[in-house]
TrEMBL record:
Pathway: Amino-acid degradation; L-proline degradation into L-glutamate; L-glutamate from L-proline: step 2/2. Signal peptide: none annotated. InterPro entries: Ald_DH/histidinol_DH (IPR016161), Ald_DH_C (IPR016163), Ald_DH_CS_CYS (IPR016160), Ald_DH_CS_GLU (IPR029510), Ald_DH_N (IPR016162), Aldehyde_DH_dom (IPR015590), P5CDH/ALDH4A1 (IPR005931), Proline_metab_enzyme (IPR050485). It comes from Naumovozyma castellii (Yeast). It holds the Pfam family Aldedh. Its EC number is 1.2.1.88. This is Multifunctional fusion protein. It comes from the Eukaryota. GO terms for biological process: glutamate biosynthetic process; L-proline catabolic process to L-glutamate. Belongs to the aldehyde dehydrogenase family.
Length: 581
């Protein structure tokens, strides 16, 4: 038994020497109870949950929050400075400003690069378990103390109903933080399986050199969390450009991470003009990798800029590029399908969160013999359930109807783009709007669920991502199921998600085989949205992204650079090989 003074002395030494601390902790395992966070159902009878949620919603609605830049832990506000400000408004009630978001200048971006550089070595030299603890604690804070605030910020700012907010900013977000810890631990434990006699081989998972640039989309708070969290957990420092339309929830997330112990400078928050911020960061020698989620068009631009930087010798390394982008996801209905299941799954897949998921169902293939029954049921359900909030004050958020199924689209640009699509469909003889087509911007950016039949299966409505509640449909001859699989595979440049609905196993197998490269997430008798961390690893190939699979183990590999060490215990006594004698 060590005396107290010896123990204190040893603790002091350990505190001074991080290498020693790492070695002392190398057998610590992450908690064994890591499992998916449960979705709170928010039924009518969950009155306490509703009361707490309403209180948080009222808090954010009653005054606009000042959202600063956060560089090296320091808050920087636009007031009394030359910085401009962006007003993030409530998409369900556009006159209501939720947050005044300070916009970064070129100088701020430079400061963020410096902050990320200075914070780096201390952060990656921390034992993994200390870095992991920050994210585990943040997950617990989000699923308990800040649950209602996170929900309210995501519902108000990003136009979600409570269920969509729950599966995003609570369950998926905390799942990302917790499962990444488990996956990182597993990765660090992956070591060379062979060491010859007298040799010890080791793999060391170093962070990348330089900083990671994380660019997040508006539509998932959880995605933003993973864009910053995955690289940071692996010892990288991050410069984060959030979407202007998600600044409120994203800033709240950063404050939770800080409360959980995130050191200064590890994640630097720089909202601002996307091109100004990006160009400045990509021009830096310190740029080590991109972690992006957003549209294919923007990702291609960034990819091009990085390639040019590489060719021009701008960077120290080949920067890692990890990007998840758009989709034109399909539901393929076979004549043997259970129609009610296909109908309800399609309503959810196409219209939940107003179709603003990269995974949303946006093209549907139905056998001619089943089309009438399918759409009679689907349209009947939409009408009966009053799924359309257009022209009513009963939007899920602004009018106080928090139980609604659909809400607004994110902003005016999106609204304008979608109504242009609807107007085009009204005049194109190749297209027929069989349901919906309404929109209203009186109070918020509301576009109703809309279904459009296409005569030509290669019409641009079958290939273009609209990112709204618009479903394009093609009726195929019943005896052309196999050809329809080929058609699906060849129609769009994307490869994100897709589903087949059938009871017939031969049909399922055929689709499974023929659609192997058409999507990165394939569903059988289920909607093509709603991947769950650690259960369905998420991401697509082709023009949908680099398919590094968020929510799975492989993505963490992209944020480390392995150093292999061979230590030799047997000293040489001669230079000649046996064959030289
Ligand atoms: N595959 C996935 O996992 C996934 C997940 C969510 C969203 N998405 C895709 O994201 C898109 C919707 O999100 P969005 O509207 O926020 O996308 P977006 O591409 O407009 O914006 C994404 C991010 O890029 C930034 N950005 C925009 N223009 C830029 C430019 N020229 N240079 C640098 N940065 C720029 C934005 O400010 C934002 O932070 C859809 O295409 C959707 O499919 C994909
Ligand atoms: N991972 C989510 C989609 C995120 C894209 O926006 C899903 O599977 O529905």
């Amino acid at each position: 038994m060590l005396s107290t003074s010896t123990r204190l002395q040893l603790q002091k030494i350990a505190g001074r020497n991080s290498i020693r601390t790492i070695s002392q902790l190398s057998y610590v395992n992450p908690p064994t109870h890591i499992k998916n966070e449960q979705v709170k159902p928010f039924t009518n009878t969950d009155t306490k949950d509703w009361d707490l949620l309403r209180a948080s919603i009222m808090k954010f609605k009653s005054s606009s929050l000042e959202v600063p830049l956060v560089i090296n832990g320091e808050r920087i506000y636009y007031n009394n400075s030359n910085r401009s400000v962006f007003a993030q408004s409530n998409p369900a009630c556009h006159k209501q400003v939720l947050a005044n978001v300070t916009q970064a200048t070129e100088l701020d971006v430079k400061d963020a690069i410096q902050a990320a550089k200075e914070a780096k070595s201390k952060w990656y030299q921390l034992p993994f378990y200390d870095r992991a603890a920050v994210f585990l604690k943040a997950a617990d804070l989000i699923s308990t103390k800040y649950r209602y605030d996170m929900l309210a910020a995501t519902m108000l700012g990003q136009g979600k109903n409570v269920y969509q907010a729950e599966i995003d900013c609570i369950t998926e977000l905390s799942d990302f933080f917790r499962f990444n810890v488990k996956y990182a631990h597993d990765l660090y434990n992956l070591q060379p399986v062979q060491s010859a006699q007298g040799v010890w081989n080791k793999a060391e998972y170093r962070p990348l050199e330089g900083f990671i640039y994380a660019v997040s989309p508006f539509n998932f708070t959880a995605i933003a969390a993973n864009l910053i969290g995955a690289p940071a957990l692996m010892g990288n420092t991050v410069i984060w450009k959030p979407s202007q339309s998600a600044a409120l929830s994203n800033y709240l997330l950063l404050t939770v991470l800080e409360e959980a112990g995130l050191p200064k400078g590890v994640i630097n928050f720089v909202p601002g003009d996307p091109i100004l911020v990006t160009d400045q960061l990509l021009a830096s020698k310190e740029f080590g990798g991109l972690h992006f989620t957003g549209s294919t068009q923007v990702f291609k631009q960034l990819y091009g800029k990085i390639q040019t930087g590489v060719v021009n010798g701008l960077y120290r390394d080949y920067p890692r590029i990890v990007g998840e982008t758009g989709g034109k996801n399909f539901h393929l209905i076979h004549k043997s399908a259970n129609i009610p299941n296909a109908v309800f799954s399609t309503i959810r897949g196409a219209f939940e969160f107003q179709g603003q998921k990269c995974s949303a169902t946006s093209r549907l293939y139905i056998p001619q013999s089943k089309s009438e029954e399918f759409f009679r049921d689907l349209i009947g359900t939409l009408q009966q359930q009053k799924v359309t909030p257009v022209n009513t004050a009963a939007s899920p958020i602004s009018g106080g109807d928090l139980h609604g199924f659909m809400g607004p689209v994110i902003h005016e640009q999106s609204y304008n783009k979608l109504i242009k699509v609807i107007e085009e469909a009204k005049t194109d003889p190749e297209l027929e709007i069989i349901y919906g087509g309404q929109y209203d911007k009186g109070e918020g950016w509301f576009v109703g669920p809309t279904i459009i039949k296409c005569k030509d299966p290669k019409h641009k409505f079958m290939t273009t991502e609209f990112f709204g509640p618009i479903l394009s449909v093609y009726e195929y001859p019943d005896n052309k199921f196999s050809e329809t699989c080929d058609l699906i595979d060849q129609t769009s440049m994307y490869g994100l998600t897709g589903s087949v609905f059938a009871k017939d196993r031969e049909a399922i197998n055929l689709a499974d085989e023929k659609l192997k490269f058409s999507c990165g997430n394939f569903y059988i008798n289920d909607k093509c949205t709603g991947a769950v961390v650690a259960q369905q690893w998420f991401g697509g190939a082709r023009m949908s992204g680099t398919d590094d699979k968020s929510g799975g183990p492989s993505i963490l590999n992209r944020f480390v650079s392995i150093r292999n060490t061979k230590e030799n215990f047997v000293e040489l006594t001669d230079f000649k090989y046996p064959s030289n004698y």
